[in-house]
Amino acid sequence: MKIKDIEFPGRAFLAPMAGVADRAFREVCASFGAAYTVTEMVSAKGLSMGDKKSAALLTLGKEEGIAGAQIFGDDPAVMALAAVKCLEYKPDIIDINMEYRKVFLLSVVVFLSACAGKNVEQPVTVEFEPVESEYPITIPFEAGVGVEREIKLSDIADSVQYVPLETNDKCLIDFINSGKVVKTGKYWFVSSNTRLYQYTTDGKFVRNIGSRGGGPGQFNYFQQIDVNEDTGLIFMLTTSGKINVYEMETGKFLYDIKIPDKETAQFAMLNDTLVATFMLNSSGQQKERIYISSQKENILNTFYRSDLFEVKSGTRWLMMSGIDRYMFRYKDLICYKEFYNDTLFVVTEKELQPRYIFDLGKYSIPIDCRMEACDGDWKTYNTIAAPYIRNQVIETDSLLFMPYNYWAGEKQRERHMVLYDKKAKECFSVPGGYIKNDFPGALPLRPATSLDRNTLVSVWEAGDIMKEAEKNPGVLEHPQLKKLTEDDNPVLMVVYMK
Predict the structure, then answer these.
(1) 69 with 111: CB under 8 angstroms?
(2) String of b and e for 56-93 (b: at least 16 CB within 10 Å)?
(3) Domain 2-129 classified CATH 3.20.20.70?
(4) What is the pLDDT of residue 202?
(5) 136 upstream amide cis, omega within 30 of 0
(6) Environment class of 163 (CB within 10 Å of its CB; exposed 0-12, middle 13-18, buried 19+)
(7) What residues pair up with 38 in beta bridges, in sequence order?
(8) Do 82 and 89 touch, CB atoms closer than 8 A?
(9) pLDDT for 272-298, tens place per residue?
(10) pLDDT digit string, tens, across residues 66-75
(11) Residues facing 93 on adjacent strands
(12) Tell me: the pLDDT tens digits for 431-471?
């Protein structure tokens, strides 16, 4: 196969894959016969501004053969400058990714026969037709950490509702996985690791879904739930390598769906039969990160990871907790973000689509500073991981909420939050990690999850509300909080955005 002056020794081309196609991965693909490889997506803006991490992504290996450099952006002038800078790395091809209105990626490939191993000192003119770009969007997270701005909840929200969850002998809740609260038009679903509680929208207890044990519809522990309001189905990811399916109106167990790997950490249903599952990498050598599989356990697609490392002692460490959100929904999108990865993807049956790229800069943790790579040495880990940040992402139509904490050290227990204003394209942090609430009730907001495009939820333990009331007695004057006692179940704080 030949295109202009470039002759390809085969027809197997490596597809561009953000977060996957690093240098090591490309060289492996080339060794197995790939006639062409291409880098991960590189920010044209970052490259043009001299960002070292962006430049590092363009470094091509000697064993890659014919290789391309892939850049993305929305400013024609910046793209042109970045294309010229790409020449310094001597790619055979420059692949320019630009979005065009609602089309996800419009790929314009520029073939430069003078790139590979040849003189590149002559000026190069690159012309682009202006296009409207949307995603992926680079979020200036590092800059936002250093810009503090105090805002009131009324600046961004229309109203606040409090839902005290009924307390009785059948639903004594020890804790709630706050990031995994789910709501339909009629019900709330809140969970610990061992129980799934169903409540009405005003907080009245309905039932427990499933039970402990090894029989049909039973479980010892479960990781996450998903619901389909249209079909009235509840999907529960258990730790026994299957997803239990229940009827929403009765709680009746219907059937189970087997999953490809028992080390599945979280999941989301693409529809009632197709499931996306996220794999932990506790051993450091788990090459598969997401499976797309059917109800019959057939693997339809696999998305691979590049964060492999060696655990010297063989000890496995899981850097996750019950509040971690790896797979979650925003509107009709299935989103996926690892704490270690700077990119939030949209998961489809066919691909991972980059939606947001978070520029953590100096706060991005190197792979050798992770607990899994420290061989379980807490002293070492607490020292070397202390400067770095792990961030969550909670999206509404107007804002990205990014609660974060430091990986280790003295600051690990501190709470912080960065916001990104989609319209203004500005990033800033809020003092103390909470948004001041100037609505009746006055509980500050630190969102745990989003219910839809404009509704946020925060989970408050009754004891914590009592502590807030000591500082501000007006908290318990709210009609929905007046009867609250310290021994009651948690309260859901629901915020309706503007």
Answers:
(1) no
(2) ebbebeeebbbbbbbbbbbbbebbbbbbbbbbebbbbb
(3) yes
(4) 96
(5) yes
(6) buried
(7) 68
(8) no
(9) 889 999 987 777 778 899 999 998 778
(10) 888 888 876 6
(11) 68, 111
(12) 999 999 999 888 999 999 999 889 999 999 999 999 999 99
* The two domains 2-129 and 141-497 share their CATH topology (first three levels equal): no
- pTM over 0.85, yes/no: no
**Closest to 90 measured CA to CA, from 53, 62, 109:** 62
Q: Which tokens is 468 given?
A: 């807030």
What residues does each domain of the chain span? 2-129, 141-497
- CATH: 1.10.3430.10, 2.120.10.30, 3.30.750.24, 3.40.50.10490. Which one for 141-497? 2.120.10.30
8 contacts 2 by C-beta, under 8 angstroms: yes
Assess contact for 458 and 323: CB atoms under 8 A: no
pLDDT per position as a tens digit, 324-360: 678 999 988 999 998 888 999 999 999 999 999 999 9
HEC string of 29-54 equals HHHCCCCEEEEEEEEHHHHHCCCHHH
Q: Residue 63 in 3-state DSSP?
A: coil
Residue whose structure tokens are 């947001």: 356
